[in-house]
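Late entry, zinc ion complex.
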Amino acid sequence: MTDADADADAEGDAAPDLEPAPDDRLEEHEGPDGPLYVALDEAERGQKGPFLVAYASPAREERWGYYCTNCETFDNAMDSMGRVQCNVCANYKKPDEWDAAHE
Ligand SMILES: [Zn+2]
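Prediction complete; structure with ligand written out below:
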């Protein structure tokens, strides 16, 4: 047993090779082109229910779009202003600047 090794582990802030724990805030759903990963902690308020951010990979590297929790589909349209509208249930998210005005 070496005290030096134990101390290195205890530092805990320099372990880039360490695989992070599975992200339990992601929920896998079947999307139009395969599985998509819905971030339960990244919700955008919609009129009928929150839209959740959907990623194409569980590492959240590639943002795919939004998941409508009201009707549980990925079928929605997003414009450059940050508006999102569901094509199935017409759930609607206001533009992003609606929040920014309060900061
Ligand atoms: Zn919907």
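Residues 20-100 form one domain. Will revisit in the morning.
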